[in-house]
Amino acid sequence: MNIRKIKKILMPHKQKLAIATVIIVVTLVLGASTNYDQQTTHNNKTTATNLNRQLQRTWSKVDTDDIKNAQIAVYDKKTGKVYKFTHGSKNKYPTASIIKVFILTYKMSLGELTDDDKILATQMIEDSDNDATTEMTVSLGGIYQFPKLFQKLDMKNSNINQTWGLTQTTATDQLKLLNELFYRHKIISQSDSNYIINLMNHVNEDQNWGISTGVSDDTVVELKNGWLPLNDNYQNAIVNSIGHVKNDNVNYTIAILSNGGHTQDDGIDYVNALSRATYKTLSK
Questions:
Q1: Which terminal residue of the chain has fewer beta carbons within 10 Å of its beta carbon, N or C?
Q2: What is the DSSP string of 60-103?
């Protein structure tokens, strides 16, 4: 048999062998990839479960002797999960001044701010000025316009009140607003979000408490606090803190709401303690 005939006979066998080898390699690679994806998913679920367990244990240890009702919710960017904890029986909480972030977000969702709007925005967020907030609320058409943005952000547990500071909300609803600003940008653009975030990063020094408590020096915190004593003796106070915490180890949005049965100072101490405990757990 001559060489040409031998080549014709052998060539198909070589091609089949090569194709079979490729199929085996691809199968092994795809199988390894699938196993890796499954393992990664399993590890992420395990991490989220363990983190939830750690946070629940940490939050439950914070002293609540002077606190009647409180709620905390955290969205951890690393795990993509929301973790929440409730003390007491309240389902919804008055916003006090944290509603100012919502109001400014709503205003920006309608179009570009005027120069006068920008002055009001700075006064609302950095100074927590109530008159500026009322003026901007009026420019929106009043509090009865709020449900439009509640619906867009899927804030199903938030309801208006005749007084904007007594608007009812939950910690998880506040995360939906915060996540829009810090991660999603579906209702307003990233540049508009950054405008609000910059204001939250420059609140007056006397308002720099709450979720900024207990974080490391390299941490960037954007926040808005709300506080409102419901009687002349500073009893039964509303004390809330919302915002975003980020450094090389952590990246999360957080909302802490509290009211009922405590003084304003008690509420601030409790919110500070929750913030400190949260950061310590998430930064491990």
A1: N
A2: HTS--TT-SEEEEEEEETTTTEEEEEEESS-S-EE-GGGHHHHH
Give percent of the chain above pLDDT 90: 75
pLDDT of residue 12: 52
187 vs 9: which has the higher pLDDT: 187
Max CA distance (Å), the chain: 111
Q: SS3 for 284?
A: coil
Confidence of residue 47 (pLDDT cuts 50, 70, 90): confident
Q: Fold for 62-282, please state it.
A: Beta-lactamase (3.40.710)
Which phi and psi (to 5°) does residue 223 adopt? -145, 165
d(CA 140, CA 198) in angstroms, rounded, equals: 22
pLDDT given for residue 229 in this prediction: 83
DSSP state string for 110-169: TSPPPHHHHHHHHHHHTS--HHHHHHHHHHHT-GGGHHHHHHHTT-TT-B--SSGGG-EE
Instruction: List the domain boundaries for the chain.
Output: 1-55, 62-282
Q: Could you tell me which of 199, 202, 221, 236 has the C-alpha nearest to residue 278? A: 221
DSSP helix/strand/coil, 4: helix
- Element at 254 (helix H, strand E): strand 251-259
The full length of the chain comes to: 284
Which letter, b or e, does each residue of 83-114 get, where b requires 16 or more Cβ atoms within 10 Å of its Cβ?
bbbbbeebeebbbbbbbbbbbbbbbbbeeebe
DSSP 202: T
Whole-number Å distance between alpha carbons of 263 and 179: 30
Q: Which of 187, 229, 226, 180 is nearest to 203 (CA)?
A: 226
Residue pointed to by tokens 């367990």: 53
Rounded to the nearest 5 percent, the helix, strand and coil shares of the chain are 55, 15, 30
